[in-house]
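Q: Give me the 3D complex with calcium ion.
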Amino acid sequence: MGFGCLDRLAAVLLTALAAAGCADAAEPPHGGYPNVLFVFSDMQRARSMGCYGDANARTPHLDTLARQGARFDAAISNTPVCCPYRACLMSGQYAHHNGVMSNSVRFRPTVKCIAETFRDAGYETGYSGKWHISTPREVGKELRYGFPESGTPFGLYRTDRESANVTDVAIKFIAEKAGGEKPWLLFVSWILPHSPYKAPVGYREHFNKIAIPPNVPDGAATEYAQQCLPDYYGMIESLDDEFGRLVAALEKAGVLDDTIVVFSSDHGDMIGSHGLKAKRWPYGESARIPLLIRCPRSIRAGTVIADPIGSPDIYPTLVGLAGIRVPDGLDGADFSPLIRGESSKPPRDYVYLEMPYAYVPWPGWRAVRTRDLMYARTVDKPWLLFDLEKDPWQMKNLVDDPASEALVKQMDGRLAAIMRETGDSWDVRADGGDLQKWLPGVSKQQGQASLGADWPGKAVDRTADDKPKGRKRKRAHASDDE
Ligand SMILES: [Ca+2]
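A: Here is the predicted complex, encoded as structure tokens.
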């Protein structure tokens, strides 16, 4: 029996007792349906916060959230770049099922989206901040799939990096809904700590002494990390302050303990690790994200979950935590029994990652992340295998190690089976968006990827015959890689 069931039963009993003059008004509101506040940043890797063991970070509010709730140590962005993550989050579907396999590709979910499910269960919904799927450029107007069609539009993304504006909208929503008849679902989407690396005034100065991660090679990569990281951590500290304001608003409204509070991010950022920049890589700095969930009515404080969980799992898990029936047809799984401690076994013991367009030769890379291993391949060959228990910084690639030959073969077979089961293939294609920018050899590849390290796309000599056929070349929409 979950949060919703228990609390609704308690609510019914307490309401009956109250009617008989036997109880005060301490019952859970809304028949036991909790509010849901989902807060996420942009480009924040898991190892960027105190609660994830990063001594560089100053994140007291988020560390408190982790202490009071559940911390996921292997939360993975399945397709670690902006629009694909958001499409997975909204639909609970893999990129090759919802259509968004790169940025600015049209969102085509074939299921009810998360806000539609909550709305149809009686929730009010709200969204503040960066949206970035189904934008006016793609479909003529901004489609919100169950969220009200208002809020900070994507158009402000280029100019409005003021997290406080996004927080203010959310605080207003929380205050307005306090004491209302319906529970609510609110998403808060900050753009920081996305590049350009520029912390709000007064924050960079807190990070003059930064420990550079051991997987950043000497030379250009280290210089790049030294230059970027103080601002990166400064932006994250500023978000922590904003997060503190949200928690204070919940307390002021008297709904903190009646609200499932989540913090996460859409993907990480390499910032020099392995000699690379940006995201779209399967490495931990790019694909591993923070995921914290506080819900004192059903989640024990200090819960730590080592099992991998992916972006499409968030939707069914939040629905499950709220006590609403999970819709059919989602790729994601409901982890709520695991989080509540009702089950010791995760609903799935791996996360499947797919990146059809970026850096490596068309059609990209695929990967599988288990609790202890990360394995990735390109269409041509096995690429990366890391033993995460022994090698958390992913510095010893075992893929060509003769002693790991059997393990490589086993993981490769497993990845091929997952691809078949999920209906993915190396021939999956999407039209439009920014896809052409990610062909090996074009300026996007050259400008964003490498700080001198070898990477699979670098040495590829593409001929005209290799290029995807049947697609009209056109100017891509995005001017940056969000
Ligand atoms: Ca992003």
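A quick observation: The pocket of calcium ion is lined by residues 42-43, 82, 266-267, 482 (CB under 6 Å).
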